[in-house]
Amino acid sequence: MASAEPGSTALTYASAGVDTEAGDRAVELMKASVRRTHGPEVLGGLGGFAGLYDAGFLTSYKRPLLATSTDGVGTKIGIARALDIHHTIGIDLVGMVVDDIVVCGARPLFMTDYIAVGKVLPERIAAIVSGIAKGCELAGTALVGGETAEHPGLMAADEYDVAGAATGVVEADDVLSPERVKSGDVVIGLESSGLHSNGFSLVRSVLKLAGWSLERDVPELGRTVGEELLEPTRIYTADVLAVAQALGTELHAVSHVTGGGLAANLARVLPTGTSAVIDRSTWRPQPVFDLLMKLGSVPLLDAEGTFNLGVGMVLVVDQAAADRTLALLAGRNLPAWVLGQIGTGDESAAEGAVQGTKGVNGGSVRLVGEYRA
Asked: Where is the PurM-like C-terminal domain (predicted)?
């Protein structure tokens, strides 16, 4: 093997910008938070080449189906970086992943994460992972592994991005699908905690245009702009699974309101030939949405196709189960209300109707009326 010429400058991995010792320190700092997500099903400790999860319980299923999902948090990371606050962005990541899995009725079992950075700062990595672990605790999901990759020369020292993937399981007979939805079903909205993790490219553009700083205190919000924007995504997994257990076959469909807004995501879980009419007057979006629309002169339809506007998850239930569903959610301290109802017929030609989003040729959804003042 060739060696460096005498007098020449020797290049090492560290001089190229990769600090493996810093990576090791980051792992040590995150161990405690990760362990809190582990139950007896997780085998081994942190640092192995792969995470091991005991799936022996699947023998009790007649026909177990595995569900998987992956996602990131988009440009919300820019807000965390600007404020140097990194312990909540991981909660957003978990919410974006596990609540996509629960939509089909599956229980998320375990999750892994991937963090790409320009430079490994152990305390910052540990803060990010602590948020991921907190989100996994809220969802009842084990964090079984992850990877931190240092990308000097490709990312600035303060830059990073996060992504995650999770796996869940559902009994084949219990899968939620559009085929369950029928005319007369009730559409129930579950309150969001705010912006969640969608639409931040528009948010950042609005703030830049208005010249507002993240440190600006806003009376309508009761806190600074930055504090409002970093409000973590609400995680609905445990609530939806509780509803599924209580209602059984009376729970027909679930939609996670992320990119595309309420109408587009609800349309994805409706069968062709059905329509949902959603009454805006049944709720009042949180002040942050009205503020952004006014500040950036954002048209209503554009806002509805970008933000959740106060509804983070939607349940479609049998009409006879609507009151029980609302009572159950109230008992879990999750604000929820009736948004509208499922009908028959094609409303896709009606003004403002949404159909056929993200490659799914499903039902149609139309929002009517005006939001509650």
From this structure: 182-348
Token couple for 311: 């509804």
Q: In which region does residue 253 sit, left (phi positive, over 0), alpha (psi from -120 to 50) or beta (all else)?
A: beta
What is the value of pTM for the model shown? 0.91
Cβ neighbours of residue 234 closer than 8 Å, sequence gap 6 or more: 95, 191, 192, 193, 196, 312
CB 266 within 8 Å of CB 274: no
Residues 6+ apart with CB under 8 A from 120: 19, 22, 23, 26, 148, 150
Angstrom CA distances, 326 to 70, 186, 246, stand at: 30, 11, 12
pLDDT tens track for 228-248: 999 999 999 999 999 999 999
Q: What is the C-alpha separation between 69 and 75, in angstroms, rounded?
A: 19
Q: Which residues contact 187 (CB under 8 A, 6 or more apart)?
A: 266, 276, 278, 314, 315, 316, 338, 339, 340, 341, 342
At 176-203, the pLDDT tens digits run 999 999 999 999 999 999 999 999 999 9
Q: How far is CA 48 from the centre of its chain?
A: 27
Query: For the chain, give me the number of helices (H) and strands (E)?
Result: 11, 15
* Ramachandran region, residue 129 (left: φ > 0; alpha: ψ -120 to 50; beta: rest): alpha
Contact 137, 33 (CB under 8 A): no
